[in-house]
Design a protein that fits this description.
The structure is a homodimer of 210-residue chains. In chain A, 53% of the residues lie in helices and 10% in strands. Chain A has 210 residues and is mostly helical. Chains A, B: One of its GO terms (biological process) is protein ubiquitination.
Chain lengths: 210, 210
């Protein structure tokens, strides 16, 4: 067998994402409607079920009386839901989905965790780490504690410990929320800034050095 | 805005293909059956329609009396149809689909062209080019002529022109078929081997030098 391998024809790039994005956009064959705020979205329940265990449980629940009834999504902005749907069909975020906007990013992170979309959650976690500043760090720490994301937490603590930002951080709404919910996180921050010979812990909500 | 971009979290790779491959395998929500030889396959008609204009025309034809009726595919090997379905959902070929086997490759190439899957057709065309030898070149040339694939044709002619293979090629079944169907292709081969001052063409099925 002689091989003629001097000629290489590059295959066109995959257009799977493009085709599925169009499938979502065209709504042809869509068999489920979501009502999100004042907007409605149509999608294909078996695509969503294939992509997310949370959607599978919601959409293919055999005990549901009327599976054709629109699904109401109460606690989400339509823009976030639209981005979520696009991600379900393509594993990417739509053009114009502004991850520089920290509120969008936080919502998408939460949605990623909630719907079992590890890739979305981790993409957002990485971006949240990059966006840490005096204004955002307390809210990011709260998210990290709530959803048990070690990388985000470490990035926040490293930021607070490495820069003179505690005063600015203390002024944000996020800080008050963080302290109410997770006072113990201050211990982790202090630990980074104290000589290792000094121990620190929280007893009855108060920070104690020993 | 200070950026904390020392920490980069790599997002997990896309699992879109994996999820859609499972969707095909599990057959959940499948709404069309194909009968291919002695095998049957279940799939999702709107996925196929989103991926191929030929499937769209076949499966979403509004004039069809009974759209739930199984679709009979007469002229295809079940193994090839299975690979085609997998490609529709993932843009890749399944494990165990042996592209080194020239017959498989030729069939998949034809299927790619027929169903408007340019990526599949071009992947196979590239592989057909690499697999050219004395045994395969005539059949590959026939395919190139029939489907008007310039790159494959050029690779075949370059192979025949650059090596002393005409005698071996003449003994293959493919060569007889090629000569019956496309006698003119010999002109292209000869042109590569003759000094440019000698003209050559086919008149009434015979090769004429001038």
């Amino acid at each position: 067998m002689r091989k003629h391998d001097t000629l290489a024809i590059p295959a066109p790039p995959s257009n799977l994402q493009e085709d599925f994005a169009r499938m979502l956009k065209d709504e042809e064959g869509a068999d489920v409607t979501f009502i999100v705020g004042d907007k409605s979205f149509r999608a294909h329940r078996h695509v969503l079920a294939a992509r997310s265990p949370a959607f599978r449980a919601e959409l293919l629940d055999p005990t549901k009386e009327d599976p054709t009834k629109p699904v109401k999504v109460d606690d989400m902005d339509p823009v976030i839901f639209e981005a979520l749907l696009y991600f379900m069909y393509t594993d990417t975020l739509p053009h114009g989905c502004d991850l520089e906007k920290n509120a969008t990013l936080q919502h998408l992170f939460v949605v990623g965790v909630r719907y079992g979309l590890d890739r979305l959650a981790t993409m957002c976690e990485g971006k949240l780490c990059q966006n840490i500043n005096e204004q955002t760090v307390a809210a990011a720490l709260t998210l990290a504690e709530w959803y048990d994301r070690v990388l985000l937490k470490n990035a926040c603590i490293a930021f607070v410990s490495s820069q003179d930002v505690l005063d600015a951080m203390k002024e944000t709404n996020g800080f008050k929320h963080l302290m109410t919910r997770y006072p113990g996180v201050m211990v982790d921050i202090l630990k980074q800034n104290l000589p290792s010979s000094i121990g620190v812990r929280v007893i009855y909500g108060r920070i104690v050095f020993k």
